[in-house]
Amino acid sequence: xxxxxxxxxLCVVAHAAQLQEVFRWKDLEFAWPSDRIKQEAIQSxxxxxxxxxxxxxxxxxxxxxxxxxxxxxxxxxxxxxxSLNTTNRSPVVIPYPDLKANTLPxxxxxxxxxxxxxxxxVHVDECDRLWVMDTGVDDILGEFNQYSKSALVVFDLNxxxxxxxxxxxxxxxxxxxxxxxxxxDVQPSRCEDAFAYVPDLGxxxxxxxxxxxxxxxxxxxxxxxxxxxxxxxxxxxxxxxxTDGVFGLALGRVRNNGYRTLYFHPLVSTNEFSVSTExxxxxxxxxxxxxxxxxxxxxxxxxxxxxxxxxFDLVTEVVFLTQLQKDGIACWxxxxxxxxxxxxxxxxxxxxxxxxxxLKIDADRNLWVLSDRMPVFLFHELNPNEYNYRIYRIxxxxxxxxxxxxx
Length: 407
Fold this sequence. Notes:
By secondary structure, this protein is mainly beta.
């Protein structure tokens, strides 16, 4: 038994070594227009370096977008990018579309339509658009200042100009709503037929937005709720209890009928579920009790496999998921039943992958992973002398080699 454990451990370590650490930071630094502006922001406490935690990422060409939610006061810019042409391992992040759009208004100052108050995750679609879910809230853990309504904000990446801002309706939300993720369902030849799916982790629902109709509707289901038996987590030596519901979303291939399968899971759960986008995109069906049995339980990933983000590779039909309590990344080939035996370990690192928060597959089939030790940031304090934030990259085919996810 001991020999078997050693062999398995060596396989995990060897496989994890394939991850390439691209960037790392002790503290995040921003590209300021001038040192004077930076010093003014520090003196006014509009910029508190230790309060800027990177969380979400997405790649478009030579830009790697990195989000910094306003968990605490003093976040310089919530939506940013890194130039992938840099050779700096700890580069500055550049506000997008610019610093002004990411600066909190003062004394009743009017907000421009392209403003971003606080975003957790973003999505780059096949039509060169950047979709941003803006919560509109600053200092979430403190004074909870609501500067604007929750909204989808969409930019044209070729021009860096705002295309559309869509504010969620009152009927899209509950008093407990919190939107920290999104995914976009679109085909390159049909950009006007896009749908965004936005999970509500606090209100246990999904908001569907139709680009063509400029309309949204809220979907409810029991599977969107958290599992009360899976809410006790320990990450990075920190024990905490969460009640986060539906969170991770991943879209499968387009089927012959033009629809996809949406794979989803609550963060506080070890189960994976699915539903056809044919259900979600039909407003009357999606909001009707008759759709209840159209949702499917895919299976259980096994003990301590709570996951935040997920991403689907269209070539191999493999879903990648973060593994919060295991300091790692895992995979599941959707052509196989979801069982612990078919749930593969892609990478595991007890230092570098403490709280893998987000992951994305880019257009070149690179898997990008961001880890940020968020529980330590939220409940204690990060050590400024250690590397706290990391971004990794690995080719999808390399990631699933020698795992149950390989075909």
